[in-house]
Amino acid sequence: MVYGHSDLGRSEVIDPITLKILVAGGFGAGKTTLVGAVSEIKPLRTEELLTEAGRPVDDVAGVETKTTTTVAMDFGRITLRENLVLYLFGTPGQDRFWFLWDELATGALGAVVLADTRRLEDCFAAVDYFERRGIAFTVAVNCFDGAARFPEEAVRDALDLDPGTPVVLCDARQRESVKSVLISVVEHAMMASAARR
């Protein structure tokens, strides 16, 4: 709860408006990093070590230094105003955890599909998921050090995106960069909602 003060000097309870945004994408795309970069609280993380048992199903090609994986979700919070709070839910990136996505997506305003150009095909499933459910999303290309850079239109064509779907470049480690991505998601979701009315 958020408490405010009225003109009469009495405290009144102000119910905050909460917005929910999902952060999805392939294994190792930087979802946990993105949530942590912008959250005002210590993010909740459900990461576990990669093990030999997971080697047959965890494709680490291109992300060989990755040692952990999200097994349920990441959670972060941003207070935008006294009565407006944004909740971020990072989804697990591997196929075997996709059963959690429906629960996490319930009530979402929109989503970020975080893309890694070294493994662009890993975000096809997230794009498909949000398109099928009519959830507005922005594709955020995480600019990893040493990864090839491609123009927005090349990424759009490779992912076969609808013309109105935003594609932005970002650095998931940088708070200001992540804020720009989230602004894009909210603006796109608002425009999509207005168009449906």
TrEMBL record:
Signal peptide: none annotated. Pfam families: ATP_bind_1. The keyword Cytoplasm does not apply. It comes from the Bacteria. The keyword Nucleotide-binding applies. SUPFAM superfamilies: P-loop containing nucleoside triphosphate hydrolases. InterPro entries: Gliding_Motility_GTPase (IPR052705), Gpn (IPR004130), P-loop_NTPase (IPR027417). Keywords: GTP-binding, Hydrolase, Nucleotide-binding. Belongs to the GPN-loop GTPase family. This is ATP/GTP-binding protein. It comes from Streptomyces cuspidosporus. The lineage of its organism: Bacteria, Bacillati, Actinomycetota, Actinomycetes, Kitasatosporales.
